[in-house]
Structure to design on (349 residues):
């Protein structure tokens, strides 16, 4: 089969690989229809995730058809169209039982990290019962790739962690697919002000179309002052960091209101300063998390009912043979006005 393989820092290649087979009775093998590229895949290429080793097939997002099932997977049938969750969950270990399946003792973020991932014609999914979600017929396969990771991350690590409330004020720093998913799911809670921050004007324009009340380009000299002015100098109740660099986490610390919450979503590859000297008396909290993806069934229901405009996030798609171009498009998203980039597999139709 064809697969997108991480071959070393900054390098990705389309290579031939053997088709995966069932290794444990709890596994499934899924034939991909569509996979997608995540900001976290770019962090792997940058060397920010040293636990991902060269030779790995990348990807933890995708939609496919169940090709083969281990003998103890009873909730799925061969031929089912399924969403592959970015999180693999056994459902039985001490972390899964506490709802922290990101830290499942035999799962968590394994696909495209510790084991071969979804950017290939076939993928082996461990703990298939809880890690695959059957898709209702009305759900578009390509659009649904955004629910593997971006939407549960935006909702759980962003909106819920930042305690978005009716009437509250929200700022989201980073208008990538994860930030956009935070924007769309924040709106479900009817905050009175949602502001999106990025350097990319095209993404800021999309954010306005998706319902942001205001946008600020953080590349302008007085960005911080402009942002604070939107709250009459008070700062924001909910501050969501969806980039993963020191400059944006710093900005979040400057934007949080008294009593507010900072939710860090970004994957960080270097240390970041914590300004306790300024923040110690502000009655704030800072939350950081790897997504558990426990909200995925709810997000799929919202997608089915039409309450979430998930389809707008997937802006580009390429065949697997052009996987390297798909990566360069996502890496230079601003030039291509790209948000989520999908990879389509020839076996899909
Ligand atoms: N915590 C989790 O479980 C989890 C899960 C998925 C993704 N992530 C992380 O979330 C982050 C966002 O993911 P994504 O797929 O949307 O990535 P992305 O790369 O598409 O988006 C990042 C955005 O940040 C913007 N940006 C860069 N520098 C900036 C700056 N100085 N000021 C303002 N904006 C700036 C970019 O223009 C881009 O729009 C990444 O760090 C990703 O690794 C975390
Ligand atoms: Zn991801
Ligand atoms: Zn577990």
């Amino acid at each position: 089969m064809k697969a997108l393989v991480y071959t070393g820092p900054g390098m990705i290649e389309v290579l031939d690989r053997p088709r995966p087979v069932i290794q444990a009775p709890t596994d499934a093998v899924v034939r991909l229809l569509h996979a997608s590229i995540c900001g976290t895949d770019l962090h792997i290429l940058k060397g920010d995730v040293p636990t991902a080793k060269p030779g790995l097939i990348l990807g933890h997002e995708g939609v496919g058809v169940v090709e083969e099932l281990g003998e103890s997977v009873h909730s799925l049938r061969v031929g089912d169209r399924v969403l592959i969750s970015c999180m693999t969950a056994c459902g039985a270990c001490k972390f899964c039982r506490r709802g922290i399946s990101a830290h499942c003792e035999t799962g968590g973020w394994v696909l495209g990290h510790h084991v071969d991932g979804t950017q290939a014609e076939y993928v082996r999914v461990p703990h298939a019962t809880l890690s695959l979600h059957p898709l209702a017929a009305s759900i578009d396969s390509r659009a649904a790739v955004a629910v593997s990771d971006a939407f549960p991350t935006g909702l759980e690590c962003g909106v819920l962690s930042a305690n978005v409330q009716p009437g509250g004020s929200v700022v989201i720093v980073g208008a990538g697919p994860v930030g956009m998913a935070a924007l769309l799911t924040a709106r479900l809670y009817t905050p009175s002000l949602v502001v999106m921050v990025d350097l990319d004007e095209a993404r800021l324009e999309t954010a306005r179309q998706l319902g942001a009340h205001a946008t600020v380009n953080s590349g302008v000299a007085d960005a911080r002052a402009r942002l604070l002015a939107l709250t009459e100098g008070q700062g924001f109740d909910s501050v969501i960091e969806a980039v993963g660099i020191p400059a944006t986490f710093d900005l979040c610390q400057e934007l949080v209101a008294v009593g507010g919450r900072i939710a860090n979503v970004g994957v960080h590859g270097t240390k970041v300063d914590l300004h306790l000297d300024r923040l110690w008396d502000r009655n704030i909290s800072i939350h950081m998390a790897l997504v558990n993806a426990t909200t995925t069934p709810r997000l799929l229901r919202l997608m089915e009912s039409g309450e979430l405009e998930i389809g707008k996030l997937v802006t580009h798609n390429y065949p697997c043979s052009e996987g390297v171009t798909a990566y360069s498009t996502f890496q230079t998203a601003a030039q291509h006005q790209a948000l989520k980039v999908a990879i389509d597999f020839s076996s899909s139709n």
Q: What stands out?
A: The chain has a mean pLDDT of 96.
